[in-house]
Amino acid sequence: MTDQELKDLVASLAEDRKETERFIKETSLQMKETDRKLKELGINLSGISYSNGAFAEEIFYNSLEKDMSFANVHFDSISKLFGGQIKTSDGTIIRDQFDIVMINDTSIALIEIKYKAQSDYPKKMVEKKIRNFKLLFPMYEKYGVYLGLGSLSFDDYVVKNAKELGVGLLKQSGDIIEYSTDWVKAY
Questions:
Q1: Which of 132, 123, 134, 137 is nearest to 167 (CA)?
Q2: To the nearest whole percent, how much of the chain has pLDDT over 90?
Q3: How many domains does the chain contain in total?
Q4: CA-CA distance, 15 to 13, in Å (whole number)?
Q5: Of 145, 143, 130, 129, whose CA–CA distance to 187 is shortest?
Q6: What is the pLDDT of residue 179?
Q7: pLDDT surpassing 90 at residue 170
Q8: For residue 149, what is the domain's CATH number?
Q9: d(CA 111, CA 57)
C-alpha cells in the first residue's frame, strides 16, 4: 500500500467515524424524544384509568348511599375511600384502601369497585381485604364482614368465583344497580 493510499484510507475512516458519531447523536436525540412521548402517553393512560375507576366508584357509592343496604342487611353509615396504614411488631407495613365501607352495630360491608372485574378479584378480597381491614381497624374485629364487588363489566369466571366464595356482585344496568347477593356470606 502506498503512502497516498494509506492517507486516503485514514481520511475515509475519519469521515466514516464522523458520520457514525453524527448518526449516534441523532439516534440518541430521537430516543430521548421517544422516551418523552412514552412518558406523556403513560401519564395520559394512567389518568384515563384513574378517571374510569373514579367514575365507577361514584356510580356504586351513590346507589348504596340511597338504600344503605347490602345482602339484605341494613347499614347505618357509609364511607368511601376508607383506608389506613399500620406497622406490625415485626416491622411489616400494612396499608390498604377500601372503596366503599358500610357499617352497622354488628356488621361491615366492604365493597370493592372495579371498572372491569377480573376473575381473581373475589379471591383477593377474601384472602387480603378482610385480614387487612381487621388489622387496620381492630375495633371491628368481631363484626361480621360481607364482601361485595361492583363493576361495570364482569367476565364469567368472576361470577363463578364470587358465588363460590360468598362475594356479592353489583352491576350497573341502565340507570339502576343490580345486586346479586343470594349467595353472600358473612366472614
A1: 123
A2: 53
A3: 1
A4: 5
A5: 145
A6: 85
A7: yes
A8: 3.40.1350.10
A9: 10
User: Shortest CA distance to 122 belongs to which of 169, 179, 161?
Assistant: 161
Is the pLDDT at 150 greater than 60? The verdict is yes
**Paired sense of beta strands 69-70 and 73-74, if any:** antiparallel
Q: What span, in angstroms and rounded, lies between the C-alpha atoms of 44 and 58?
A: 21
CB of 161 closer than 8 Å to CB of 148? no
35: left (phi over 0), alpha (psi -120 to 50) or beta: alpha
Tell whether the model's pLDDT for residue 93 goes beyond 50. yes
Domain that holds residue 144: 1-187
Q: What is the mean pLDDT of residues 16-40?
A: 64
Is residue 137 pLDDT above 90, yes or no? yes
Please, which residues bridge with residue 145 across strands? 108
Q: Is the dihedral of CA 134, 135, 139, 141 positive or negative?
A: positive
Distance CA 48, CA 54 (A): 10
Distances (CA, A) of 158 to 37, 56, 112, 123, 185: 36, 17, 13, 9, 17
As a 3-state breakdown, the chain gives helix, strand, coil percent values, each rounded to 5, of 50, 30, 20
